[in-house]
Structure formats: C-alpha cells, structure tokens
Amino acid sequence: KVVAVSPDNKYVLVSNWCSYDLSIISIETQKVVKTIPIGAYPRGITISKDSTFAFVAQMGGAVVHKLTMGSWERVTLRVGSNPRALVLSPDDSTLFVTLNASGRVIAFDLNDKKVIRSVRTGNAARSLDISQDGTALYVVNYKSNTLVKINANDFKVIQRLRPCNEPIGVAYEPMNSKVWVACYGGAIKVFNDRP
C-alpha cells in the first residue's frame, strides 16, 4: 500500500496490505533484509528525519507501530480505531494520524505517549500531509468530497474545499506552496496555498 524511503537512504519500507506485514529493503543490497508482522491492513508509513524511528499504521486495528530503525524493536502506540495515514511534525515530536472510520485527525505526543488533540474533518478521512513549517495540516475526506486545512497547533479548521468527488490523496509541495489532490476518478487538482 505505502512505500517510504528513510532520509539516510539506507532502507525502503513497504506496507503489505494483504500479507499483514512490512518489508524492509536495503538500498545498498537491493534485497529484503527483514519482514515484520504488523497485523490487519498495514497502511501509512512515516520516518523520523534522523532515520531513527519508523511509524506504521495498522488500519485494521487501533495502533501505530513505532519501530527502531536497524534493530527493528517495536512499541505499539494506541491512537484510535482505523488509523490510515501518518505524518510527523518538523521536530518529530508529534505524530499526526487520520482515523478513517471516524473521520478524524489526531495529534499524538510522542514524548507523553498520548493523544493531545483531535478534530473531525469529514466522512472517511483518508490521506494527509503537513506544510513545511509544520503550521498546517491538509486532509482529504473521501465520502465528504472535501479537502480540509487545519491549524496544526490548535486543530481549528482554517479552510474547507470540495475539490472533486472521492478525493483519495493529498500532498503539500513547499517550493511553490501548492496542495495537490488526487481524485479517485483519475483527476489531479492543484491549489495555491499562499497566505
């Protein structure tokens, strides 16, 4: 479902939806060096900027798996039912998670190991991304047909748009301050996000 490359360019992580596991590929050897069982429907992946930790959402449960890169030791973080997409704050202290079934986005404090903020963004919260400065989150809601911009500090909704039917993916592009939305029907919509 999801592929992520560690910032140090040592590993590629792949969440395998049907086999309920995570493949770790060495970039140097181009081989799978480890397969880690995750549980039902592994999905979103994000990796800390220093390549120390990886986070994997278990969509068929209520946890995110925190893995120590290299040793692959694991800790589970209880975030809420049906976690799908993940992004980290720029300082790697907060994990942002979409909870698909409830249509929510949560902020999980990685130091205190608890949910510190939550907001309902629409029906079927799918993908999310974060602005380069960490001040805004962008989330698409598949069944509400919406793109929602959230203040990452207080979780207030800043803007709500209807980009297309069934928006499925979102990416923030910092060079030109644009938000890209992928629509399930095949279209891509691009929005300016300048203040």
Element layout with pairings:
Layout lengths: L1 E4 L5 E6 L4 E6 L4 E7 L4 E6 L5 E6 L4 E6 L5 E5 L4 E6 L5 E6 L4 E6 L4 E7 L4 E6 L5 E6 L4 E6 L5 E5 L5 E7 L4 E6 L4 E5 L3
Antiparallel strand pairs: 1-2, 2-3, 3-4, 5-6, 6-7, 7-8, 9-10, 10-11, 11-12, 13-14, 14-15, 15-16, 17-18, 18-19
Keywords:
195 residues, mainly beta, four-stranded antiparallel beta sheet, 19 strands, 57% strand
Task: Describe the overall structure.
The chain is mainly beta and 195 residues long. The protein has no helices and 19 strands. The chain is globular, with a radius of gyration of 16 Å. The termini are far apart.
- The total of helices stands at 0
Low-confidence stretches: none
Please give the oligomerization state of what you see.
single chain
Strand order of the largest sheet: 1-2-3-4
Secondary-structure element string: EEEEEEEEEEEEEEEEEEE
| Secondary-structure-derived class | mainly beta
Provide the gyration radius in Å. Answer: 16 Å
What share of the residues lie within helices? under 10%
Morphology: globular
Strand proportion = over 45%
Alpha carbon gap, first and last residue = 33 Å
Mean pLDDT over the residues: 97
| Biggest pleated sheet | 4 strands, antiparallel
The tally of strands reads 19
